[in-house]
Amino acid sequence: MQQQYFHGIGKKYPYFEGWYLKHQNEGKTIAFIPAVHADQKGSWSASIQVVTDEGAWYFTYPIELCRINRRRFYVKIGENVFSEKGMKVQIESAEISVQGRIRYTKFHKIKGDIMGFFRWIPFLQCHHGVISMSHDLSGSLKVSGKNIREENINFTGGRGYIETDWGSSFPDTYIWSQCVFGIEEKNSIMVSAADVPVLGLHLPGCICAIHYKGREFRLGTYYGARIKEYGPGTVTITQGIMTVKVTRQSNHSFQLHAPQEGNMKRLIKESPACLVRYQFWMGRVNVFDVISDRGSYEEELGM
Question: How many Å is the maximal CA-CA distance in the chain?
């Protein structure tokens, strides 16, 4: 199955499609979220969100300044380019300036589709995709702005992660976390659990991908995975003999814009890099128990 990198051709609005590109080294994290969106009236626009250890910023662009390739990962919004080879940005505002280029090595992809057979259901509120679980970085970014100390951040030797979402809205309630840990081993985990509306029902759904010491582990509702624990700061998923538990141990969140019926006016909170504990068992064997200060964590529980 050939991977598709843009799904919006011929789709009815409201609609959104966005890409989450995270870059981390041992001391810094920066993520970019380029996106396109159409509201209920069919009015299209584009945006880029910048998320750092110090804050989050949202920029809008006319849709005419956006170019997207369907067959390979390539998104251009204004002067900013995000692709399989790397990214270059030139963002200027009174609040923040980000300029520079980061190059990527070959993506470490997952086998198949993270959505399983659910990828064939066209009316899902939100679809999810993983473009790269991890990849090497080289290059630097110059970051400055209001209340931001100017610095050149060197990401050479760091690690990256890229995922994507498309549909009409984010789920009303969900937990999502991601982390690349053990730079030398290139280990990575992504886990998400959500309340999924399907034909008037609200069903619990979960997906998880783990790359650990050269092996891939997958959990998902389509494999029989169950959400055992789901609450503030924690989620536990079980599937057969496998158990994954994610526990947020600190909260360093910033406000982001998220899609609601194609409109980016919903506000959520994400910690781009906070202290998160990731535990994985195979039966009684603890495969890993990692606490990372580079874990990304997002939670909307409506409580």
Answer: 55
Residue type at 175 in one-letter notation: I
* Segment 43-102, tens digit of pLDDT: 999 999 999 999 999 999 999 999 999 889 999 999 999 999 999 999 999 999 999 999
| Cβ-proximal residues to 166 (8 Å cutoff; 6+ apart), any chain | 7, 8, 15, 16, 17, 18, 126, 127, 129
Q: Which two tokens stand for residue 19?
A: 């890409």
pLDDT score for 96: 95
Measured distance CA(90)–CA(72) in Å, rounded: 22
- C-alpha distances out from residue 196 to 125, 164, 221, 285, Å: 8, 17, 11, 31
Query: Could you give the C-alpha distances from 282 to 11, 86, 227, 243, 244, in angstroms and in order?
Result: 41, 36, 16, 7, 9
- Give the CA angle between residues 42, 78, 47 to the nearest 5°: 45
Residue 221, helix vs strand vs coil: helix
Backbone angles phi, psi at 150, to 5 degrees: -65, 135
Q: Is residue 159 helix, strand or coil?
A: strand
CA distance 34 to 18: 6
Q: Which among 44, 21, 6, 12 is positioned nearest to 264, based on CA atoms?
A: 44
Burial class (CB in 10 A: 0-12, 13-18, 19+), 25: middle
Instruction: Give dist(CA 111, CA 253) in Å, integer.
Output: 31
Tell me the C-alpha distance between 269 and 246, whole Å: 18
Residue 118's φ and ψ, nearest 5 degrees, are -65, -15
List the end-to-end C-alpha distance of the chain, in Å, as a whole number. 40
